[in-house]
Write the structure tokens for this entry.
Amino acid sequence: MADVFTRSMVAGDLIGILASQGCSYISVLCKTDNSGSNGVTITGEGNLAGVSSNAIVLKENESFTIQQPGSLDIGNLRIACGTASTAIVVSM
């Protein structure tokens, strides 16, 4: 069984997930977003058929979940909490 990582994020917090960490599941919930002007930014480093990843911005009450099947790992991922925003992250 894998250990579970939990974290409450506030403005300015940054979580970096590396492929070498063996993460197979991650879920991010944006709790507050500074009245719609910020939120939580999630950026992957992979590409698909030559197209690079770009940022996804979660606003208040939006969530994002990735789960890899079997023994695969999630690659590098960056999660940043914007000004006056809060979030919850759960991973394993």
The longest strand covers residues 25-33.
